[in-house]
Amino acid sequence: MSAGQLPRWVDYGLIPLLNLAAAFLVSGLVVLLIGENPLEAVEILLWGSLGFGEGVGFTLFYATNFIFTGLAVAVAFHAGLFNIGGEGQAYVGGLGVALACLALDQYVPWWVTMPVAVIGAALMGAAWAFIPAWLQAKRGSHVVITTIMFNFIASSLMVYLLVNVMAKPGSMQPETRTFEEGGRLPFLNDLQSWFDFGTAPVNLSLIIALIACVLVWVVIWRTRLGYEIRSFGANATAAVYAGMLPVRIIIVTMLISGGLSGMMALNEIMGSQHRLLIEFVAGYGFVGIAVALMGRAHPVGIVLAAILFGMLYQGGAELSFEKPAITRDMIVVIQGLVILFAGALENLFRPALVRIFTPSRVPAVQAG
Amino acid sequence: MVTLRERVLAAMAVFALGICTLPTRGSADPAIVYSVGGKFDGSFNESALQGVKRFRQETSADVREFELERDAQSLQALRNFASRGHVPVVAIGFNQASAVEAAAREFPDAPFAIIDMVVDQPNVASYVFKEQEGAYLAGLLAAMATQTGTIGFVGGMDIPIVRRFLCGYKLGAAASRKDINVLSAMAGDTPAAFADPVRGAELARSQIAQGADVIIQAAGGTGIGVLQAVADAGALGIGTDSNQNGLHPGQILTSIRKRVDQAVYDSFKSSAEGTFKPGIRVLGLAEGGMDWVLDDNNDELITEPMKSAAGFATEAIASGKIQVHDVVSDGACPL
Description:
Chain A is mostly helical. Chain A has helices spanning 8-33, 38-50, 53-78, 86-104, 110-139, 143-165, 188-191, 205-222, 224-234, 236-241, 246-273, 284-294, 299-322, 328-344, 350-357, 362-367. In chain A, helix 4 runs parallel beside helix 6 (143-165).
């Protein structure tokens, strides 16, 4: 039942669409069950996420986070590694961004701070992925377990730093001081004038995220390293037999993955909040897993899946705002159903589709 | 691109058909934005909900509510409410401070209120509480009730607001008994630390094993587990934020209430009567913003000396004779 049995447009277009339709159908039933009109709910969801400039802006803002964390998970997937530590890597990545901004914001303009912050975020995120990577490569400690544990260590470290070391004195909120202009990425509204995003915090990190997509594509499909990563993921034994070094591949892949997770902090810390605060990651690292699964670990798919999840986040907020009966927990149910159908049950419709699309080929094979 | 394009088209079709009728009608009813914990957190937000319920009952006005799922939504929700003419718009929790400030600037004629943080804008009423004063009373009562000389504290996360509570508790305990031993533990470093009753029960059991026989919880939903474990072991618990005496009657020494409900109710009521005043309200024992509960569930636990000691301390704090150390403005706890 490999992907090769189906035309590409079915594999990458029709199947995700069917999964999505199924998820929304079941969600509709749930909405019906609590006594609301599901069509109206879809309407508010779409209007809230795409119907006006600010809604689009928020959708893209959330999507930026998902692109980074989705790419991070996807890169690790290609080497057969399951990086669940995006949450912690992004959290510690925020430390890299904040240190760069706090050190430079009063002296230089944002475009000088930006590259330092990008490097800081990537380095910190990568560093946080290094120990689990090393343990996996050298000791065989499973990366799923160690990265989850590192999420908790990251939380403890950041709470300690924000409460005891970096906090603004006299403040209740464990957070650093607010960055000056030199530590703020420009909002997309300030960079162009043909589309108005209202007060949505969508910022330059979106462009950085899209550049990261291209770079990931180049690395995975157009370089020797990418070839090694994919070979190792497809068959580790064969890759080793072919002379590839497993330790190197595991560690390098996890460093790239951690670095991408860390860069999520650019969007939240330098792009939107303009200060480092506790719990800013708020689950984006985990949703990145669903985004990568749904996007088939390909940058184009990840961008589309990230936009979908951005729509669910933004449209969902509008929905629970307009319809008090649909609480925020209901929105989580709908998001959960999308993840269930798109991720866990992605092969639900595949056997049927294979049957529909293969008969025409069978005679050709027999003739050959 | 199929997915996105189709959905954009669908959205546009919906508009074209004119089915979409999202009203922007004005309404003078109040609105409230709860913090991420949610309005049924059994603690801080739920206390605000009590204020909402009371206002609803008394005035039959409709109060619009919104529960944040993440802090990024705060500004959107506040602006939505303000632009639809809701007065006042009340934000619960210090996390919303920057959003309230931005929304208050954008709608200078709309009244806003925020609980637990000061926002310096001409149209914002800020309600902050002196948690340390309530905690002081809790420590005092705990030290008088303990048989073993060891009392416990289970907090949610090691953040300033919990530290402030812990410090007040220690000071109150030490004021009534010099040799008191105060054990303290925090439940974790993630938001789950305020929503993990199992962890709370574990921490309480370990403190009981170390000799503690009165344990206070300052951990939101986690605290429910603390009180349960304490009741199971036959020790005494102390509730916080709302009145938790009835959870385990006869097993909860008292509850230290933070009258968020009162603050919410006041802001709604004053606004309805046209007497809304922006500015900072600091609510401690003297102002009735913090208090301790004595009701049918715990009157057998509170002895006469305890009652008079608590009354004396309340008066001394209210008159300024006792200044309870505040870790946020006065620096590290002296104990």
